[in-house]
Write a structure and sequence with these properties.
Layout: H1 5-19, H2 27-34, H3 38-50, E1 54-57, E2 63-66, H4 68-71, H5 75-83, H6 105-120, H7 125-128, H8 133-141
Antiparallel strand pairs: 1-2
Length: about 140
């Protein structure tokens, strides 16, 4: 399974904000530090804000900050929110699979997908920025 770019970016934004020390970087700062397009970052930030995982303040002294809910958010829940609940394969697409009525693969893939999410559910954003990751993030975030 491969994560969408927006899912990857959402996790990296949360990680970046989890390690900032009293500063409130802007969306532009975060995009530059991670070397990703500002417009894509802005869309992800808006969704994370809508989910209540971060706060975005405009104007002088504004910027992004992680909420307590964002700090304790389950990585599995964040991935589910960005990936959606669709199947790994599209059996009913424009050209439906002729095996769909008796295929066992779809169910096996669904169980594997749920096992993937279940393995991420107990992991929080705070967990994934614990040492040695946090200090590494601080080192690369200063580039932007």
């Amino acid at each position: 399974m491969r994560l969408l770019r927006s899912t990857d970016l959402a996790l990296r934004v949360l990680m970046r904000l989890a390690v900032v020390d009293g500063t409130t970087p802007t969306t532009r700062d975060v995009a530059a530090a991670m070397e990703v397009p500002y417009t894509h970052t802005a869309k992800v930030v808006a969704e994370l804000q809508h989910m209540g995982l971060l706060e975005a303040r405009r104007g002088r002294g504004g910027g992004l900050s992680l909420t307590e809910k964002g700090r304790t958010a389950s990585v599995g829940a964040v991935v589910r929110a960005f990936e959606g609940d669709g199947d790994v394969v599209d059996c009913e697409g424009a050209t439906p699979c002729p095996l769909s009525s008796g295929c066992r693969l779809r169910g096996a893939l669904r169980r594997a997908q749920e096992a993937f999410y279940a393995s991420l559910d107990p992991i929080t954003v705070s967990d994934i920025v614990a040492a040695p990751t946090g200090p590494l993030l601080l080192g690369i975030s200063g580039r932007g």
